[in-house]
Specification:
This protein is α/β, with parallel strands linked by helices. The protein has three domains: about 5-240, Glutamine Phosphoribosylpyrophosphate, subunit 1, domain 1 (4-Layer Sandwich), CATH 3.60.20.10; about 250-450, Glucose-6-phosphate isomerase like protein, domain 1 (Rossmann fold, 3-Layer(aba) Sandwich), CATH 3.40.50.10490; about 455-600, 3-Layer(aba) Sandwich (Rossmann fold), CATH 3.40.50. About 35% of the residues lie in helices and about 25% in strands. The chain has 20 helices and 27 strands. The strands form five sheets. It has an eight-stranded antiparallel β-sheet with strand order 3-2-4-1-10-9-11-15, covered by helices on one side. It has a seven-stranded antiparallel β-sheet with strand order 5-6-7-8-12-13-14. α3 packs across α4 and α4 packs across α5. The longest helix has 22 residues, at about 430-450. It is globular, with a radius of gyration of 25 Å. It binds 6-O-phosphono-alpha-D-glucopyranose. 6-O-phosphono-alpha-D-glucopyranose binds near residues 305, 351, 352 and 609. The site of 6-O-phosphono-alpha-D-glucopyranose has 15 residues, from α10.
Amino acid sequence: MCGIVGYIGSKEAYPILINGLKRLEYRGYDSAGIALLNGDINLYKTKGKVADLEAYVVGKNIKGTIGIGHTRWATHGEPNDVNAHPHFSESKNLAVIHNGIIENYDVIKEKLKNDGVHFRSNTDTEVLIQLIEYIYKHENVDLIKAIQLALGQVIGAYSIVILSKDNPNTIIAARKGSPLVVGIGKDEYFLASDASPIVEHTRDVVYINDEEIAIIRKGEELVLKTIKNQKKTPFIEKLEMDLNALEKEGYDHFMLKEIFEQPRSIRDSIRGRVNLKKDTITMSGIIDFEERFLNARRIIFTAAGTSWHAALVGEYIIEELVKIPVEVEYASEFRYRNPIIDDKDILIAISQSGETADTLAAMRLAKEKGALVYSICNVVGSTIARTSHAGSYTHAGPEIGVASTKAFTSQVTVIFLIALMLAQKKGKISNEKLRKLIIELEKIPSVVEEILQLNDQIKELARIFTYARNFLYLGRGYNFPVALEGALKLKEISYIHAEGYPAAEMKHGPIALIDKKMPVVVIAVDSLIYEKIVSNIQEIKARKGKVIAVVTKGDKTAAALADYVLEIPPTEEILSPLVSVIPLQLLSYHIAVMRDCEIDQPRNLAKSVTVE
Ligand code: G6P
């Protein structure tokens, strides 16, 4: 989390940095700050959002063609002005921005304090820049060596960018565990946590690898070294990103735009992978590892948040179609429990951002144990994509709203395609069934379009429940993970407590919560266990709960029992999560809008969780 930007060139840095921070604000918005090198280092920072920083710098000296900027998601030290980045060294000759956590900061801080260094903030970041300055002063080395030595002492994750008064034409950046991209322009360089602030300036980028240092001097070639001082050759890649995708394009919020983009994003996830003439599916990432996939003893999905819900849908889909046993693991649990996994297993990591620290750690662990590690990511070039042996991109386009929407439907689409391909190769599906499922999948984008027409109806429904204190979401089978996802969406953006549950499990606890004030969203679309869901609705009604049912068009039974009904078109049951989730996304969106909540940047959350 935290967004970092940097610029060095001949243009004024401030507007570039501020616009860059706005693009990265999804990564954290507890505080924001910039430092500009113009003889001295002028540093401005404030608690709050990038807009607060803009207001704060009015009338101040923001001149300079070299600068760094930061938007923070607080880890060490409360989110206030002092703990905001950038941080100065004691002499104010160095300034740093940091994304990550320095785990052994307290030991280093104690030592520096004993040696007379004074600290201004409670952050781990200040410890790092003070350590660099201490080494620089006391060990008679140049700044780059001092940075290398300091980084050799710290434990944890970082991506840092440093300005130095003594090195006025230089920016030095380094990374370990947190992402960092350098954009190469004409006589200018851009730095950022991801490519989104860079793409409007240049399409040529270098992704910095772990334990690498980038030394960027005005008018000179980019120099890359390892922390141990080995020279590296920068690998320049071309960015392919549509700039419009980074704008709201007339929608009030990115989240709403992204919900409405789903017909397109699902189509893009399918595009080029399906050949109806030959009845084949091609996921290019699988091809090189086909044998391992076909002989896999087990597939383990690992992920966090919404991506974990997509993984859960994946378990149902893959076991149904491919007949390989599947497990789904929270990455944060998997990585610390010495799991049994070896070269007969395949680990599939799912991540929108491709940067989630726990997911990445789980992948590394599985790799060490010999498993094939596959990734399903949205962000091209992200660390998770690059750490996997192979993978499939979801091609959903940039997702900026912190609450994930289109990423989920694209992830489920990609998993479904992988399952179809493997099922065919393993001879587990007939050509007729495969063809039927492909045809049904291709219809999904237009079904989603139809469901989006429910927007006004859902808005009215949201009005009724704006002041609910609790919500229950129930689903079964393929739609159990959708119930979890619906509840997560509501919690994230409206701050209403919500729980997702397998409908039949309700009897074992949550049913005690039901009274006439309790809204219960039930996904009761056509399925093999439809009758069972109807019984669950009856159980809720018997206790006077308010039922909002998502049903298949033409439904009579569940619809007659429910207090409020949202009708969606019929689909194959296995594909139903792709459509049943849409009304739930809209419901949470409208409830949150009516409660006047910050839709795209809900409190305490961040989109890209690069700390564990
Ligand atoms: C954060 C985001 C969620 C996301 C989760 C996993 O919590 O707010 O929207 O689902 O991280 O992120 P990933 O990028 O790995 O899918």
